[in-house]
Design goal:
mainly beta; 7-stranded mixed sheet; 4-stranded antiparallel sheet; 0% helix; 51% strand
Length: 112
């Protein structure tokens, strides 16, 4: 079955960290760039970070630069999003995307 499954979301306080994971199955993961998106309540979905097939190049939306880090393990068919120094404005449902496939999303809530 071709799918992406995110995990690792949760409720944290401002300044804390979370690590999201996205496990791929049913396709040749290493052949596809992977992207993390997020969608906050009442807002459009936005690209957060993207990583190339080899993991050697990546881009970030300005609002997360210096705080978030995207990485991938092609042997484990998994892409990660390390999120540090979280802010309330990072609250959203986070989705991974690749090969025209979307995961179901994982909720991240940053609140004191």
């Amino acid at each position: 079955q071709v799918q992406l499954v995110e995990s690792g979301g949760g409720l944290v306080q401002p300044g804390e960290s979370l690590r999201l994971s996205c496990a791929a199955s049913g396709f040749t993961f290493r052949n596809y760039a992977m992207t993390w998106y997020r969608q906050a309540p009442g807002k459009e979905r936005e690209m957060v970070a993207k990583i190339t097939t080899s993991g050697s190049s990546f881009i970030y939306v300005d609002s997360v630069k210096g705080r978030f880090s995207i990485s991938r393990n092609n042997a484990k068919n998994t892409v990660y999003l390390q999120m540090n120094s979280l802010k309330p404005e990072d609250t959203a449902v986070y989705y991974c995307q690749g090969n025209a496939i979307w995961g179901q999303g994982t909720q991240v809530t940053v609140s004191s």
